[in-house]
Amino acid sequence: MVTTLDAVLTRCRSSPPNILATLQQVQAAFGFVPLEHVPRIAAHLGVTDADVRGVISFYHDLRTSPPGRHIIRYCLGDSCRAKHTERALTALTRRLRCDFGETTTDGRFTLTKVYCLGHCALSPTMMIGEETYAQLTPRSVITALQNHP
Amino acid sequence: MNSVTIYLDGQPIQATTGQTIWQAARAAGIEIPALCASPNLKPYGSCRVCLCEIEGQRGFPASCTTPVRDGLRIRTDSLALNQLRRNILELYLSEQPEDALSASDTLRTLASRFGLQRIRYRRPKRRQYARDESNPYFAFDPNKCIACARCVRACDEIQGTFAITMYGRGFHSTVVAGNDVGFAASHCVSCGACVKECPTGALYEKAIAEFGQPTYVTRTTCAYCGVGCNFDVGVRAGRIVSMRPVDASPVNWGHACVKGRFGWDYIYSEDRLKKPLRRVGDRWIETSWDEALDLVVREFRRIRDQYGPDALAGISSSRGTNEENYLMQKFMRCAVGTNNVDNCARVCHSATVSGMMEVFGTWAATNSLNDIEQAKLLFLIGANPTEGHPVTGARIKRAIRRGLKLIVADPRRIELCRYAEVHLQLRPGTNVALLNGLAHIIVREGWHNREFIARRTENFDAWWEVVQQYTPERVEAITGVPPDRLYRAAELYATSGASMSAHGLGMTEHKYGSHGVMALCNLALLTGNVGRPGTGINPLRGQNNVQGSCDVGSMPIYFTAYQKLNDPAVRQKFLDVTGRPMPERPGWKIPQMWDAALAGQLRGLWVIGYDVAQTDPNLNKVHRALRQLEFLVVTDLFFNETCRFAHLVLPAASFLEKDGTFTNGERRIQRVRKVIEPMHGIIPDGEQICRVATGLGYPMSYRSAADVMEEVARLTPPLSGVRYENLDNGFGLQWPVPAVNHPGTPVMHTEQFTRGLGHFAPVEYQPPGEEPTEEFPFVLVTGRVLHHYNCGAQTRHSKLIEFVNQDVLEIHPLDADELGVRHGELVRLVSARAAIELPAALSERVAPGQVFTTFHFPDNRLNSLLSSSADILSSCPEYKVVAVRVEKISAKPRRVADVRARVLA
Amino acid sequence: MIAPAAKPQTVYVADDSTAIAAGANRVAAELSRLPNVRVVRTSSRGAFFLEPMVEVDTPQGRAAYLNVQPREVPGLFRKKPVPLARIPFLAKQTRYTFARFGENEPLDLAGYGFRAWQKAREMSPQQILAEIKRANLRGRGGAAFPAGIKWQTTADTPTEPKYIVANADEGDPGTYADRMILEGEPYRLLEGMMIAARAVGARQGYIYIRSEYPAAIQKMRAAIAQAREFGVLSESQFDVDVVVGAGAYICGEETALLESIEGKRGMVRYKPPFPAVEGLWGKPTVINNVITLATVPDIILRGADWHLSLGTETSKGTMPLQLAGQIRQPGLVEVPFGLTLEEVIYDFGGGLPRGCRFKAVQVGGPLGALFPARLLNTRICFDALAKAGGILGHGGIVVYDDQTDMVQLAHHFMEFTANESCGKCTPCRIGSTRASELLQAVLDGDAVPEDIALLRELGDTMKNGSLCGLGAMAPAPVLTALEYFPNDFGRRL
Ligand SMILES: Nc1nc2c(c(=O)[nH]1)N[C@H]1C(S)=C(S)[C@@H](COP(=O)(O)OP(=O)(O)OC[C@H]3O[C@@H](n4cnc5c(=O)[nH]c(N)nc54)[C@H](O)[C@@H]3O)O[C@H]1N2
Ligand SMILES: Nc1nc2c(c(=O)[nH]1)N[C@H]1C(S)=C(S)[C@@H](COP(=O)(O)OP(=O)(O)OC[C@H]3O[C@@H](n4cnc5c(=O)[nH]c(N)nc54)[C@H](O)[C@@H]3O)O[C@H]1N2
Ligand SMILES: Cc1cc2nc3c(=O)[nH]c(=O)nc-3n(C[C@H](O)[C@H](O)[C@H](O)COP(=O)(O)O)c2cc1C
Ligand code: SF4
Ligand code: SF4
Ligand code: SF4
Ligand code: SF4
Ligand code: SF4
Ligand code: FES
Ligand code: FES
Ligand SMILES: [Mo]
């Protein structure tokens, strides 16, 4: 793990240093940003722990704990709202037995909310991993899960 | 800068382009309500309390971010604006803790000013965070925080530490330190800038929380280091509760460091000396002041009568005021009749004095700290200001963010190396070679200032004879610095347009320290970087008043202002003023005093405020010398190491308990004001001296410190215009002050040097007193850490001890690895003279082959390792180079204080 | 008409991610299994209610099979495709920016041609600036500020270097035009940036794309790589990098976006100084929305007069509107400014799906006003919408049916703001949470009339006191909901 962090960090040299880009790389490598790595990340970039911690706390995308195998990005945007997405959402949360920001107990899914995925023409929508599901219904939302064991 | 006119609520105001409306209003004495704006910080625009209306513009722009334009007509007060403000304050209060006592006073006051009667939100979500009380001096209550980021901006913009951050966002915005570890465990250096900026009291001083807000303040000058920061000392019911840096101070501009800001709490330490102590056998017994002072008189008289006046000596305190120092040397010269008086400058910047004397003919910084703003380049050599002169360190960082370029010459990777264009990581003790090498390149490349050399200097050719030998290759062989770095540094220094140098003990505390200083001054002559703003040679003087104690004559071979002992006119002048003929034989410098004591020539000594038994080099010898004395009296705040050898110990009054002046490292004479009466009935140092003098038959008495200064002025040409009335101008006075009402001299040598022409001083590199051998393969460098001060008597008796509670040996991980030494493990450090034990701290701040430690804790007797080797001209001890060996002792690692570990990282 | 495997046949299937969500990839995969069929992946026309579309060439132009399901593919060519000219949704549009959508292969560099750039290369920077200014190109990202003036400011600022930033954060829920450009014709954006760079003297550009658009990020990166490889960028002495956002709506606001590109917390900066003078790393920076930049090539090619000939008095050119929500024919509609909401919703969008009754339409994303039926005659133009108390924003049009509870909706919008507030200024940082609490109280049946008054006053405080558009505009949907749908509130008090 430690050497991998170094490997990630060596890819993240820039002047001036870019904290967000580095954290995105770290998250891409580890699935999240382990908080205990903050000092090493900061030292590498020549910034302070506080600088890094502040950035982590700002962006919804950055996670500080390991996510489930699949990340569900469920759209709560206006168009999906207009299409009464709460109906599919209720079915989904009931099935997953977890709420936004949480991971299912089996570690399979992490449910996150987004405001719009840009597929509003086919609202309601969600993404599981990189796969987009549109025109969700309480039924289709459940079948979608089956594609992601 | 253009001047424009704006109209604030109809009233015309002159403003400058670049100012915001809020700044312009403030400059004109009009206060537009604001919470997030601060005169010390860049605009931010968070609180929206400062909103205004601008004619011809829609909406409600923030006055704190809107730049002025000629003819702007602004309303700052209207029904709509006040309703907006009221509603914003309502929002603020709605998130503060429900319990009214816990909400911020500032907010409540503002709210009632804008007529807020009650909070209409019925069950608002409130701030609910845990308090951070980890810092010994201040605490953070996030529930009072309004997320205005003033603290974060202060840490970034003023202090340059970037220790804290805004955290989270939206309603959940708050402040955290470091990686959300609390202030104490973060990189925070406790400068207090954030606390000062916090508008709500979310960040607050613990002492104020405990003792209450001050009811009045007294302005004074910090008594730690030579920066000389100004403070307003807040008092409540006779107790000092806070020291806040003064915004308008030309020295610190509202900033401070942890020692000055908070580390004054030692004055309330239980361990402070309260009553005179007389040694009887092995015991110490309290005596009355009368008895104690009488004892000094009797012993001094006895020794003088028995062995002559030269068997007595005095060591005056460069921690004390100019007036006390003047009195001490007057006492020694007039009441005792000897020139045996010296002060701590001897072991500090005496080499600066001898070096600068040779080249310029003066003994002090040529320029002012404010010149950093005009400099294009700073050449920092042998100084570590972010720890030793933190306010200057922060200022340098600020200037760097604005574009100042920096060269660091230091064997260690000090904090400022991070911001340096070039780090010249030379071997300790090789400054002369390095500086000659830079000069060599500059001449070879034709970067020197021929016009300046021709017009203002002499001895160039003889100098070049020597310097032309210093080719980059040879210099690399001596210093270890690669030629490309030398070239880069030489070019930067020579061609920046305004290069300023600042040096410290890495220059002076060497066997050839004076030579190093000369070589540095030569560089300034060579490139014309002296005599103008933003240039010059600027020693970062160490103790609060080392500059002043020399200026007022606490020196064995000079009178005040370095006037010669044998100059008849000077002697006559002193006779006229003091009524006594001055002793003629040059006195002993401190190291000579130890030899004299061991030889039986020195019998009695009065040491004021200087822990020679801990901080002088070659301690075993010093201790033997002290033991030889028939009578040793020590005046100090604490029972320091030297007291152990004393026959009589006299308590001293701290700087908060007496009047006087200090002279900082830029020759600025500033007032020190009595804030509280001396505690425990202590008789202040100056009065002790006067009473003993009087007892010895030479009456000394003054109505006030101001009277003493008037006497100094009469005797001291560069100080002749100094009067207390004029020191109260808020700026002090930078000498030379040749006449009353003279404004002082921020930049010296503008037209000519004090000695006339600048004298190129040819100096050859010579190796330090000790070089690593097979037996002692490491070079030990000694120095300081931010949180402690010199012998540590004061800082160890303050809460600063919670930050750092031991000296540690910094050793490079490669070396440690080779020795099998782990972080925190106790190791033995052996020199040709002694062996001591210290915990190791692995750190890449030191180069391989070098080790570093500090001298703030007496128990490890660090200075017993050192030899008596000293600068051949000034006797400044060679503290910076000792050949040692590091031995592993098989012992369990112990915890190295957290802050220390972080500083080392 | 055309039997399978009769003669080699080229078919076109969109590679757009919404089309893919509708099944385009699966259809394409089935198609490529057929002998003699060559599947070309193109951009999407934006008629998403018809996706997956399989298009074929006919002598009369393109025709398409609509809403194709994978299982229909084997027998597909036995059916008759619909000529596109006969699909009113498409036929009635006035397409320039999206003219090639549905036909071009997104990453086909040679096919794109960069003709506008070739023309711009021959123009002096000042000529380009003059043309853009004369065309009165107003920003399509929301603020409608004239791009030419912005560019001129950057050009006139002596500080170097200068930057061009494309705002591809497309944060407004209900919008997707930027995404379609990024995925469908990335070179168009690139070309717009190259022209802007030449006009102001910039050497480096950044495209800030939200992380919710993985396909767009990938396409844009690939397009840049190609443009580099074929020397297009180096010839223009300009280079571009993609910066990926991290899930922060506020980073669509231009100054927060700059902070984010710098890798910092996306906190809004006060203005002035405007980014055009002090932007990225303090240097002069042109920041424009993707559509704004994608309109530039046409202005250069066709001239300012062409642009001035379209649209209304104050809003020139065309606007890609994005229909979404409860609407029968959701999709992208590029039309000149000036149509009424009604025309767009009913003539293009086909009105609401069967069984749904119109309740409200929101134009311009979550900060836009909610309009009731009686305001459907409002014209779609920056100023007409502003006059009606709304915004055009980025051209998102979301229709709500009568099952929508306006209190719930208002609460949703405030929660959105509370969630997305950067936290810098008080009215938005605390106000959005308070407003959301007040609306929750209404939902809970817990509110008293004074709470509604307080909500209105708070709305004013946010509007007048906030530092940026988020806080300032967030009250609009709530206040319009209160104004136009008072019953939804009233029955709960
Ligand atoms: N916190 C704190 N502040 C203090 C003090 C304190 O004890 N604590 N003491 C005060 C006093 S009395 C003084 S004099 C000042 C001293 O302040 P500084 O002058 O900064 O003194 P040091 O930190 O001892 O040493 C400065 C630097 O010299 C470097 N050095 C060592 N050898 C060489 C060399 O051969 N060449 C070069 N170029 N550099 C070398 C060291 O690595 C070190 O970083 O600080 C004052 N301020
Ligand atoms: N190894 C090593 N040794 C060094 C150095 C080094 O770099 N390395 N640096 C050397 C240098 S530069 C210096 S300046 C010395 C400093 O060494 P010292 O002068 O010994 O140390 P300080 O702590 O400054 O102060 C000495 C005493 O003054 C007392 N004092 C403070 N204020 C007053 C006052 O107002 N009145 C009286 N009467 N007493 C007061 C304090 O309680 C303290 O006991 O150390 C030197 N020793
Ligand atoms: C809260 C907020 C969010 C914004 N989001 C976007 C966005 O996602 N995309 C965009 O192009 N502009 C957005 N803007 C507008 C930008 O600040 C800016 O005006 C625009 O990028 C300028 O480009 P244009 O002039 O080409 O429209 C937003 C503004 C605000 C206040
Ligand atoms: S005390 Fe100084 S260093 Fe510490 S957080 Fe505050 S401003 Fe920063
Ligand atoms: S702690 Fe004080 S200065 Fe810092 S954000 Fe909070 S209120 Fe502002
Ligand atoms: S920098 Fe020096 S003078 Fe200033 S507060 Fe700190 S110790 Fe005192
Ligand atoms: S506001 Fe109305 S009249 Fe004016 S340009 Fe727009 S549509 Fe035309
Ligand atoms: S209005 Fe909201 S998003 Fe905009 S600056 Fe203020 S707190 Fe940040
Ligand atoms: S609102 Fe859900 S995809 Fe756009
Ligand atoms: S003082 Fe102007 S916004 Fe806070
Ligand atoms: Mo010193």
Brief overview:
Chain A is 42% helix and 13% strand. With 149 residues, chain A is α+β, with helices and mostly antiparallel strands.
**Given the structure, what is the number of helices of chain C?**
23
Low-confidence stretches of chain A: none
Quick one: overall form of chain A?
Answer: elongated
The SSE string of chain A, one letter per element, is HHHHEHHEEEEH
The set of bound ligands, ions and cofactors reads:
ligand MGD, flavin mononucleotide, iron/sulfur cluster, FE2/S2 (inorganic) cluster, molybdenum atom
Strand order of the largest sheet of chain A: 2-3-1-4-5
Query: Which structural class should the secondary elements of chain A be placed in?
Result: alpha+beta
**Helix/sheet category of chain C:** alpha/beta
Major beta-sheet overview of chain C: 5 strands, mixed
Question: Rg of chain A, please?
Answer: 18 Å
The level of helicity of chain C is 40-55%
For this structure, what is the CATH homologous superfamily of the largest domain in chain A?
Glutaredoxin
The geometry of chain C reads as globular
CATH class of the largest domain in chain A: Alpha Beta
How many alpha or pi helices of chain A?
7
Roughly how much helix do the residues of chain A carry, as a percent range? Answer: 40-55%
For the largest sheet of chain C, list the strands in their spatial order: 2-1-3-4-5
